[in-house]
Design goal:
Structural class of chain A: mainly beta
Largest interface: A-B, 22 and 26 residues
Radius of gyration of chain B: 14 Å
Helix content of chain B: under 10%
Number of helices of chain A: 0
Oligomer: heterodimer
Shape of chain B: globular
Distance between the termini of chain B: 36 Å
Number of strands of chain A: 12
Order of helices and strands of chain B: EEEEEEEEEEE
Number of strands of chain B: 11
Shape of chain A: globular
Radius of gyration of chain A: 13 Å
Strand content of chain A: over 45%
Order of helices and strands of chain A: EEEEEEEEEEEE
Structural class of chain B: mainly beta
Largest sheet of chain B: 7 strands, mixed
Chain lengths: 114, 116
């Protein structure tokens, strides 16, 4: 069975500081990994994904994520946080087949403090 | 592209009434998903379709829930009869196996359901 863990329910970061939102996964075989962001009263917006290739993936709004196979992690990062980055972030996992059964983590609420 | 379109955006209904949620996936996408989001349970996959055929409905909570996809551009999720515990945000999402955006699931804005 596949699973995704987001160990932190809440992350607070001062504006301008680097931010990290953590995600670990468990799956047999090669994973497809995703990050989504949800703003209040909105749907989930796709940020970035790892399918294969370079372990450092760049996405929307200056976010990036690093795939680490040995640590089974896919942490989301940004060098300098903006207040507008405050939102709910979800890590998600699909087995190595296209378009099927995306499993979500429980979400991490990121708050950027001015 | 217009993205995944869901209707209604908000619905308040009385317990026992039938609720129908509608979804138009992104044109050309061959997968369609229905998710439910609640504070207690987070995001749950209810059912998904491939080429209009239901592939996995193991997440559908009970027989009161049903979903159909009569064609590639339309799907419905129906709850009959509705109960207060069905109150949640219901998301429709779609993806394509091939193409520039292959492998990525795109979500609609959600249907916010309140059953009183």
């Amino acid at each position: 069975a596949q699973s995704v863990a987001q160990p932190e329910d809440q992350v607070n970061v001062a504006e301008g500081n680097p931010l990290t939102v953590k995600c670990t996964y468990s799956v047999s075989g090669n994973p497809y990994l995703f990050w989504y962001v949800q703003y209040p009263n909105r749907g989930l917006q796709f940020l970035l994904k790892y399918i294969t290739g370079d372990n450092l993936v760049k996405g929307s709004y200056g976010f990036e994520a690093e795939f680490n196979k040995s640590q089974t992690s896919f942490h989301l990062k940004k060098p300098s946080a903006l207040v507008s980055d405050s939102a709910l972030y979800f890590c998600a996992l699909a087995p190595g087949r296209v378009g099927e059964k995306l499993t979500f983590g429980t979400g991490t609420r990121l708050t950027i403090i001015p | 592209d217009a993205g995944v379109i869901q209707s209604p955006r908000h619905e308040v209904t009385e317990m026992g009434q039938e609720v129908t949620l509608r979804c138009k996936p992104i044109s050309g996408h061959d997968y369609l998903f229905w998710y439910r989001q609640t504070m207690m349970r987070g995001l749950e996959l209810l059912i998904y379709f491939n080429n209009n055929v239901p592939i996995d409905d193991s997440g559908m909570p009970e027989d009161r829930f049903s979903a159909k996809m009569p064609n590639a551009s339309f799907s419905t999720l129906k709850i009959q009869p509705s109960e207060p515990r069905d109150s949640a945000v219901y998301f429709c999402a779609s993806s394509a196996r091939q193409g520039r955006t292959g492998n990525t699931i795109y979500f609609g804005e959600g249907s916010w359901l309140t059953v009183v």
